[in-house]
Amino acid sequence: MAYFKNVNTLEELRRQYRDLLKKYHPDNANGSTQATQEINAEYGQLFNLDSRS
């Protein structure tokens, strides 16, 4: 599942990451451990791509 949409800058990536973690964190009522792991993995891939360019 693609959680990050229309990310053009590193700042947008970080902002979306924070917002997604607030929404899907396992400690929240509607949180999900699996979703959090997927978000972290996707963020890691996008962050590495951005930092290399």
Residues in helices, as a percent range: 55-70%
Broad structural category: mainly alpha
Q: How confident overall, as mean pLDDT? A: 90
Q: How would you name the oligomeric state of the polypeptide chains in this document? A: single chain
Number of DSSP-assigned strands: 0
Distance between the ends: 24 Å
Please, how many domains? 1
Task: Give the number of helices.
Answer: 2
Order of helices and strands: HH
Shape: elongated
SS strand fraction: under 5%
What summary fits the major beta sheet? Answer: none
Pfam families: DnaJ
Keywords: DNA replication
Protein name: J domain-containing protein
Domain J: 1-53
Give a verbal description of the structure.
- Keywords: DNA replication.
- This is J domain-containing protein.
- InterPro entries: DnaJ_domain (IPR001623), J_dom_sf (IPR036869).
- One of its GO terms (biological process) is DNA replication.
- This protein has 53 residues and is an all-alpha fold.
- The protein has one domain (10-52).
- The chain has helices at residues 10-24, 33-52.
- The model has no long low-confidence stretch (mean pLDDT 90).
Could you give a short description of this structure?
The protein has one domain (10-52). The protein is 66% helix and 0% strand. It has 2 helices and no strands.
